[in-house]
Prior knowledge:
- By secondary structure, the chain is of the alpha+beta class.
- About 50% of the residues lie in helices and about 15% in strands.
- The termini are far apart.
Amino acid sequence: MKLIECVPNFSEGRDLAKIKQITDAIESVAGIKLLDVDPGKATNRTVVTFVGSPEDVIEAAFRGIKTAGDIIDMSKHTGAHPRMGATDVCPLIPVSGIMMEETAAYAKKLAERVAKELQIPIYLYEAAQSNPDRKNLSHIREGEYEGFAKKIKLPEWKPDFGPAEFPAKQGATVIGARNFLIAYNVNLNTKSTRLANSVAFDIRENGRVKRTGNLYTGPVEKDAEGNEVRIPGMLKECKAIGWFIEEYDIAQVSINLTNFSVTSVHQAFDACCQSAQNRGLRVTGSELVGLIPLQALLDAGRHYLTLQKRSIGVSEEELIHIAVKSMGLDELGPFDPDKKIIEYKLRDNGYGKLVKMNLRQFANETASESAAPGGGSISAYCAALGVSLGTMVANLSAGKRGWEDQTLYFSKYADKGQKLKDELLLAVDEDTAAFNKIMEAFSLPKNTDEEKSTRTEAIQNATKYAVEVPLKVMKLSYDSLELIRAMVEKGNPNSITDAAVGALCIRTAVEGAHLNVRINAQGLKDKTFADIHMQEASKIANATEAEVKSIIMNVEELMTK
């Protein structure tokens, strides 16, 4: 499925009723999921985030832009953030199943419609803009609302779409396509906008103009062609300015990270800390505006654990906690991962009903008269527990006093164990879902020949899925034995029996999943499919049995020494 994200910035952050009108217009499009609404009083600006199919997204964006133009009067607008229109900027971001080029085409389609139907001057930016001199948002927005009535008359600033007249009420709008942008503010222990700007100039890619003599007041140096000479900043793909936020009574460095794979959020935070310290300032925390990709926080968590010389092989939840506390993301208000991480908003953490239960609830559900969860889900959970024990030994070994030179070795194993555990936990609910698919297929009507054919095909497809899920559990389980063996041979000797119990859990999981593969494969008409999967399952089962026996023998030998 093609999925794109849209993050329009509306020039209203104080009147909640008006913001609600805009978001209601966006949500009036079926198929749109509103992910986040982030108003700011000081900036008088609201960042809205929603996702959907490309056609649904551009329809929702159009309705949002129209509503904003109807209810916001830019001639009366004030706010700390640079702006030029009621809908200041409206980027489209490819999420899945679509490339940037196609996303840019949708941005142009939206821009053309807004200009034609609403008579708002539109500028394209980033991937939607072919003119290199007009790709940068801050360059387009120079002069802001107050200066745009004159700027729009300049030949070089004729809008890409719409009239070359500046409407006082709606202003102008910038529409484009870009990579995921992290909007991120770093808090300083000062009220000085000048000092905040100094930090911003230190870190942003564009840096600052070079001056002769005094860094702040000296004459600007120019090259032979008369262009200003600039001192580059510390970070690539980073834009930043300083401002004072009356709402919090502090100055902030407002940062846009345009490609977090080039400059990460933790690199931006650390750079601000370094610059601030050099200027006698201190960073007190930070805040996210809108959403952040899960990977960005996981990378930050691993970064700070590594600096602490601790194992990075901890749970996803712990990595997020470390990232939040290290960067002070909760200084100005609670940080709720379910509301701020884009993947969590889209997939509800990825986990189904069973994994969200506590231990007693899960046992009660298994013991009930329902046929699911059954042996397949329990096998997956056994494997998750087994690899968790191996991961525990890896983390204990990474943190063992006197073993500091081996921290990285054990940390890598712990990280691998966490990833295997998470995949196996997903399989707990997936196995039950596979069983339910079979039951749903059997409940299809079979009154006509066509219905019988459809029902038979659905049953066969569901049964194939019910073979593939336990086979995946077998593969993941066997992969975890490398970790467990390493922990027995090189891990903390006080925990080798924990690793051994993990190996026994893995053997149970593989044997249980193997039974599921066999029983479900028997009902398949596609014998080639059945034979291939049965043979692969048998190989894994045999290899697992041999490896677990070897691991247990190794443990027995070590215990007798």
